[in-house]
Specification:
Oligomer: single chain
Number of domains: 2
Distance between the termini: 7 Å
Number of strands: 11
Largest sheet: 8 strands, parallel, barrel
CATH topology of the largest domain: TIM Barrel
Strand content: 15-25%
């Protein structure tokens, strides 16, 4: 059965408003809520903790939680504390979205694939209560580096937030799940294949890896309003995406440069005018019927957990309601 989650970014409002949106998702049957752990943005750990108190059943996770600005030992204490406070509803997205944001604050991640592998090993060892001493290429823990308490669960799901083939393969090797960007949805197969390859390389059943594809969505009964909302994020982020993924819908990173230039000087209307229908295909956009069709592309490519976010729609609360009432039942 396909699971559905949402990603809540601070573009949608204040931290308090994001927690309120998570509560709306909890009420409308969304399976999971994920907060990006981005440099110099509202802190995902605080948001996740507040969400644990404001919700009853939804899974709660921090996405792209990097072990360079926060040591893996700190990550595991956050994760286990959140799991206890939420009654066993925590998950972790371990990894990194981009090295650029950490470079802003002088952090050099070096070999991010190896660093993520070691961080995963440290977190899982500490969760399991295994011997604490660890000497890796990137991280180390002494004999004293052990948890001073017993976690509620030792098997909290740890997903990997990857980009690039080697990182995607690692997620298939070790993660309970993988969190690839699927922008556009037609690129999902390009992301799923290395995840499967990584799982098979270490003898794992690929079906045991929860492929949680991160897709952009702007959904509304008013398809025009949904398109206008999506144009803003497409104009800003289109140049960051990988050319092979964009080629699946016939566009390139260079196509987004003129719109990005307008966005960067605050000319939102000018940017929207430069975003074509093909450029909008980076995300899932339009009415519920239109969105269902694009989500079907993800499911057919092997995505088992559809994570929808950024910007959700012109009215975020209504968008979450539509996902819960018009999208999820269709796929179940």
């Amino acid at each position: 059965m396909t699971r559905f989650g949402i990603r809540l970014l601070d573009d949608l409002g204040s931290p308090r408003e994001l927690v309120e949106l998570a509560a709306v998702a909890d009420q409308h049957g969304i399976d999971s809520v994920w907060y990006p752990h981005d440099t110099l943005r509202p802190h995902s750990w605080a948001l996740a903790t507040a969400t644990a108190a404001a919700t009853e059943r939804i899974q709660i996770a921090s996405l792209g939680t990097n072990p360079w600005s926060t040591h893996p030992a700190e990550i595991v204490t956050f994760l286990t504390t959140l799991d206890d406070l939420s009654g066993g509803r925590a998950a972790l997205g371990l990894g990194i979205h981009t090295t650029e944001h950490l470079a802003w604050v002088g952090v050099d991640v070096g070999d991010y694939v190896q660093g993520t592998r070691e961080a995963f090993e440290i977190v899982t060892r500490l969760l399991a209560g295994e011997g604490p001493a660890y000497e890796g290429e990137v991280f180390r823990i002494t004999d004293e580096g052990r948890l001073r308490y017993t976690p509620t669960r030792a098997d909290i799901p740890i997903y990997i937030s990857p980009f690039g083939e080697a990182f995607l393969e690692l997620s298939g090797e070790i993660g309970a799940g993988s969190l690839p960007m699927v922008t556009p949805p037609e690129s999902a197969a390009l992301m799923v294949e290395p995840i499967i390859r990584g799982a098979k390389r270490v003898g794992r059943d690929p079906s045991s890896v929860d492929v949680a594809g991160l897709a952009w969505i702007s959904i509304s009964e008013d398809g025009t309003a949904a398109r206008e909302r999506m144009a803003d994020i497409v104009a800003y982020f289109g140049t960051y995406l990988e050319a092979p993924a964009l080629a699946t819908v016939g566009v390139s990173p260079e196509d987004y440069l003129p719109a990005r230039e307008r966005i960067m000087i605050g000319d939102r209307e000018g940017a929207r005018a430069l975003v074509s229908e093909d450029m909008l295909r980076l995300g899932i956009v339009g009415t519920p019927a239109e969105c269902r069709e694009r989500i079907q592309t993800l499911v057919e490519a092997g995505v088992t957990h559809v994570l929808l976010g950024g910007p959700l729609g012109p009215d975020p609360r209504e968008a979450i309601r539509l996902i819960g009432q018009e999208i999820i039942p269709y796929f179940r």
